[in-house]
Design brief:
It is a single chain. 83% of the residues lie in helices and 0% in strands. It is mostly helical. The chain has one domain (2-205).
Length: 206
């Protein structure tokens, strides 16, 4: 266990080191893409470091991070679609797979929106989305909304708080995430109710 912790710590430091590299933005693209399907380190680590180094470009970094993450999520969907449930069982614990499946059964692809905002493994939802063949268009839309909210929130905090942002994010990101999830679910519920009413009105009119 100690060796695993040391490996993850070294991996984290390696990711942060790209912030001082002229290739930092490309590293952010690759990391954001890869994290959506297989890489263990979230892109927030490098995003925060880049924003601290160039705060005037914080929102540009957030946009790049969100776009690459969504494209990576689409790739994860494809991997899950072709790899299926056996792939999920090899990569994740059975209880996690069952939990995600229950989310999708209840919320369809909108469950991806919650995963895209929270510390839950986004890759688990992208791979599961493909394996369970959930609605791809809604999956992409939910990914765009949730990943943009998450990364732009991080960039905004760094932009306004500067060097104190890291401590603030560590302490309050959990509460910010909860607020984002509540707003996201509320928005999806309102949209769903509107669509349901429209469908009923159409059936009645026909």
């Amino acid at each position: 266990m100690d060796q695993l912790h040391a490996l993850l710590r070294d991996l984290l430091h390696w990711v942060e080191s790209f912030a001082d590299s002229p290739h930092g933005i490309w590293a952010l693209v690759v990391l954001s893409f890869a994290e959506s399907s297989f890489f263990p380190v979230p892109p927030d680590v490098l995003l925060i470091a880049l924003c601290l180094g160039r705060p005037e470009l914080a929102f540009w970094f957030a946009g790049v991070c969100a776009a690459a993450s969504v494209v990576g999520g689409m790739a994860g969907y494809g991997i899950g679609f072709w790899g299926g449930r056996p792939l999920l069982k090899r990569l994740f614990r059975a209880d996690r797979v069952r939990a995600v499946e229950s989310y999708y059964e209840r919320y369809n692809a909108w469950a991806t929106g919650i995963a895209g905002l929270t510390p839950l493994p986004y890759k688990l939802f992208t791979l599961s989305g493909g394996a369970f063949s959930i609605d791809f268009k809604i999956f992409v839309l939910a990914s765009i909304v949730s990943r943009s909210l998450r990364f732009f929130a991080v960039a905004a905090i760094v932009y306004w708080l500067g060097d104190t942002a890291t401590a603030f994010i560590d302490e309050y990101l959990g509460w910010l995430t909860i607020a984002f999830v509540v707003l996201l679910v509320l928005g999806f519920w309102i949209a769903g109710r509107g669509a349901h009413r429209a469908a009923r009105a159409g059936d009645g009119g026909g």
